[in-house]
Design goal:
Layout lengths: L6 H6 L7 E4 L3 E5 L9 E5 L11 H22 L3 E5 L15 E6 L17 H12 L2
Antiparallel strand pairs: 1-2, 2-3, 3-5, 4-5
Bound molecules: zinc ion.
Zinc ion (ZN) binds next to helix 1.
């Protein structure tokens, strides 16, 4: 099923051109037009799902295989030193297109594209306990 207002659905339908690097029966991968690094790729299920929260479990194996295949292809063909795989859910986490997608981002030593390490919080035992209680509450 497609969403007529979704740019990724339009790519799947061929209504918008893309630089495809991988395709199988249920997934598609294409180069990001505003990449973080050279080879930054978007991997999507062909069906429209907003994010991981509404993605059916029965689709996961095929989709994650596609993500892995794309990762291997990029690593080998571009000679990347490393790969970041990123996935954002909802605007607050940086999701811009509301069609489930993984970013597969090749990295090279000292490419300085974006920081590998981010500032970590230094929580107290009490703060950790509070979070644990919230998450594990029935
Ligand atoms: Zn879509």
């Amino acid at each position: 099923m497609h969403d007529e207002n979704c740019i990724f659905c339009k790519i799947v339908q061929g209504l918008i051109p893309s630089s495809k690097i991988y395709e199988d029966g249920s997934s598609l991968a294409f180069l990001d037009i505003a990449p973080f690094t050279k080879g930054h790729t978007i991997v999507i299920p062909k069906e429209h799902y907003m994010n991981m929260l509404d993605f059916p479990e029965k689709e996961m194996t095929a989709y994650f295989s596609a993500v892995k295949n794309v990762t291997i292809k990029i690593k080998e063909k571009l000679g990347a030193d490393g790969i970041n795989i990123m996935q954002n859910n909802f605007k607050a986490a940086g999701q811009v297109v509301n069609h489930l997608h993984f970013h597969v981002i090749p990295r090279w030593e000292n490419d300085r594209a974006f920081p590998i390490r981010v500032k970590k919080l230094n929580l107290t035992k009490e703060e950790l306990s509070e979070i644990l209680l919230k998450i594990n509450a029935p």
